[in-house]
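User: Second chain of the day. Same drill as before.
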Amino acid sequence: MHLKKIEIRGFKSFPSKTEIIFEQGITSIVGPNGSGKSNVSDAIRWVLGEQSIKSLRGDKLEDVIFAGSENKKPMSFCEVALTIDNKDGILDIDYSEVTIKRVAYKSGESQFYINNKSCRLKDIKELLLDTGIGKEGYSIIEQGKIDEILSGNVSSRRKVFEEAAGISKYRYKKEEGEKNLKITKENLSRICDIYDEIEKQLRPLEIQREKAIKYVDLKKELKSLEVNSYLKEIEAIDTQLKELCSHKEILQNQLMNLENKKDKEEKKVYTLEENLNKLDLKINEQNEQLYSLKIEIDHKKSDLELLNEKIKNIEFNQSKNEKEIVTLKETMLKNDEYITNLNKSKQEISERLGNLKKEKNDIDSTIQSYNEDLKNKQKEIERLKDEIITILDEKNKKNAKLSSLRTTLDNINEREKTIKREIEDINQNIKQKHFQLEQYLIKKNEYEERFKNLNKDRNEKHNKSITIKNNLDNIKESINTANLKINEYSSKLNIFYEMEKQYEGFNKGVKEVLKNKNLKNILGAVAEIINVPKEYETAIEVALGASLQNIITENEESAKHAIDYLKKNNLGRVTFLPLNIIKGRKINNNEISNVNGVLGVASDIIKCDNKFKNVVEHLLGRIILTKDIDTAISIAKCTNYKYKIVTLDGEVFNAGGSLTGGSIKSVNNLLSRKRMIEEFEKNIKIENENLNKFKNYKIQTELELERIYSDLNDLDIRIKEEDKLILTNQSSIYKVNEEIESLNSLKSKLEREEKGLIQNINYTNELINATLSEIEDTNKKSIAIEERVSFINDEKLQKEKLYEKDVAIYNEVNLDIAKLSENLKNIQKDIERMCEEKQSLENIIKSKEEEIANNKSFKQDLSEKLILVRVEKEELKEKLNDIELSLKECKLQRENILSQLKDNKENLKHTDEQFIDLKESIYKLESKLDKLELSQESYFTKLWNDYEITFYEALKIKDEFIVIDKKRIDNIKREIKNLGNVNVDSIKEYEDIKERYDLYKEQKEDLESSIESIEELIKDMEQNMKFEFSKNFEKINENFKVVFQKLFGGGHGELRLTDLSNILECDIEITAQPPGKKLKNINLLSGGEKALTAICILFSIILAKPTPFCILDEIEAPLDDANIYRYGEFLKELSSKTQFITITHRRGTMEASNYIYGVSMQEKGISKIISLKIQDAQKFIDEEVI
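Assistant: Same format as last time:
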């Protein structure tokens, strides 16, 4: 397995997609400081799951996203993909090539992928466990990791060794196992609580179940007797019903005949009423027709008047139109004369316009000839001017050259003087720099003294912060303890709340009634409304027995509704105590007040609302409570065994002398629940107060710790400032030394330059003389060309005068043509206008003539219509007379029908009276039938209410030979009554609770078994971890001894476990003895020796357990050249099994590399990768720095 490539996009200084291919062997990534080469190492650590942004040199996640540069916008996300060759299957995944990718967004969201499939960070960690790869492994080593190996922090150092020893996977599984163990124990605790509660309920239910079975058997026998008794009563009633039904049938036949007669008479009345209605409708219609005809006659009169008026208007319009036609024809004759005159004028103007156009063409030919000649002259002048410009340009160049040479000569002379002044200034500056150097050396001593004092103060503050931190940890432990107690109490409290909510321990019927919110005026069960002191709970629970589950209602009506609900849903039986009818009975306290050991009447012991006083006295008012059984015996004798007596331990003396006792197992906790809830609530309140107190202590301690941290932060800032001043001062000393060297170098350079300037002065004088001669020749050529231009200009002026004269004549002719053309256009418009006017007049005359013709036709139509309207009017008058006659006849018919209708209604009334009498007889007979049916129905109801069976279902169990013994029925009922309250549902409830009991028992045993298995597994893993760690640590130690000698060139190094009895938690001590020195603890070595020792440990680990690839980020920076060479040679040895990617700027490491990549920052803030040859690498770094 090896690293194939990395793809970076948007990560830190790599905005564009960057791909780096890694081959097996050693690959170096080089570049100057600040070029971004370490960002490659950061990218690999980040993609492998590094969560600490500070370790990636940032403050928050968005700091790893490219922040933009002068020419490139910031990015909103970054992604890094690492491709690993897995052909050898070291990674536990079915792919020969694995790509791990991580994407982050500025919103803070981060996503992981394995082969482009979304995954969790946990999946990546598990995939890389025990490979040495990952942020906890030793595949990525930077300066910080070197410090971790050498630091006094036990956990930091152990992580590297544990990964190398191959026990990281075991430790991870052990931690997972411990988490599972904790969860399993919590589950077991919860299951045990439920198991104990169910166990308490089981025994009482078993007793109730036995009682219920006896009750069911008695009920079965009673059912057989009573059902057969009811069936015999039903049969007797059925015989009487048949006789009454026969008599009813005779009466119904008589009623039917009378009903037929009544229907016939009703039809006659209906027919007469129908005829009367039709006649009334006809009379109304004729009245409406009379009214309509009168209105229509009036309309005809109006139409005649309107037609006469229209004829008069037409005659008037005819006369008016004839006069207008005569006037319009006279106007047309005048227009014809005007058009003839306009055509004559048009002809004259057209002839004159033709002559002017001919004259214009002649002048235009002459102008064109002049224009061509002038253009040729102008071209010749332009050509000569171009020659002059060329000559002048050449002259200017010569003058510019002359000026430049003279300026150069002046500059050389000025520079010579400047150099002499600069050499004097440099000598003065060198003297001043030597003085500055002395001042900086004095400051150096002052800064170092202050730095030492500040570090001393910081150490004191740091020690104090550790003490306060320990106190804070103790307070946090107390807070955790309080939280655990609160959680424990809350858990138990929730169980009791749930039991109350679900009415656990109550019988099924009681539960269902209490849960049903639709049942009104249900006040609760007896167990819910009373409060009993803890010491009396057993006694009161025994005294009440099943009465604890009695339900209290406002009145008997509410109880009745509840009982109906229980019957309807087959939910069993419940005893109800209506407040309005329950009366309390109580023992006279004087009878028992003088007896020692008597605690009182049971009803006085408990607390409840006053409205329940009668209920409590009804149940407990005649029960005496005593301390013990001896007192109970004494009281029973004194009271002649007429009262029930209960002891605190639950022994009972029943009225009459029977005694009940023995061991009692609390079952339902119906009485103690409220008390337990109050106790848990009280405990939670106390623990919350403790929690608040500890939280206040925590806040105060945190504030004090924060103040110390603030002081430490201030000291750190001051130390950094002092350190910065020391570095700045050191830099200034270095800078002044460089400036002195630079000034001496500059002085030598200026002296050399002064010698060269004298030679340049002579050469420049020679060039000036040659340039003056060339300028004189150019002036002569320019004068000859200017004379030729003057001659051509004179000829051009004469031609221009003739041209301008012809152009003036041409313009006058053009103006005359324009005027005549405009006149001609106006005349044409007038002709067109007059023609249009003529046409308009002709159209008006035609329109008027058509109107005269139309009016004649319309007048004829109106005359004809006038005659027609007169005829229609006469016809309407005749129709009116006919309708008036018909109306008189209809009114006579109506009076006859009314007389017949009166006689028929009298007959119908007599028939109705007979019908009512007969119907009343039938009703009385039906009443008798109803009573018998009701009686029969009552037996049906008894069958259903008592046994929930129908009549037909009862017939199936009918026994013809059974003897109905009323005495036996009464005895059975008495036995059932003596059984008292029976919970029939207890049979099913017992089975359900037993099933739950068995289930939770099985779960409890499974969890206990799981805890044992997990504990055994953790123990086995610890043994494996110890064995693997011990074995591999010994290998690493042996390797360390050998590698130390190779890299140091001698000496001795060793790794030791500080506590062999606890090898999984103890510290790992590193000792080193470089050649020629005494054996030292690692902390006493120099910086370079420490770094080389850590590298020895790293190489020892890789030899013991090679990692597929290893990234080394400038870990060899503190080493000198000799050690670098040995470091490079050892890398080559290891590269046969491990692929190395080194980030370096050391030549020795580069020389040991097989491949080199350069990182440059040509544009500020943006890194680029360049592939390099080994010989070019150092040159690349030097050039980038410059």
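The two ends are 40 Å apart (CA to CA).

User: Great, on to the next one.
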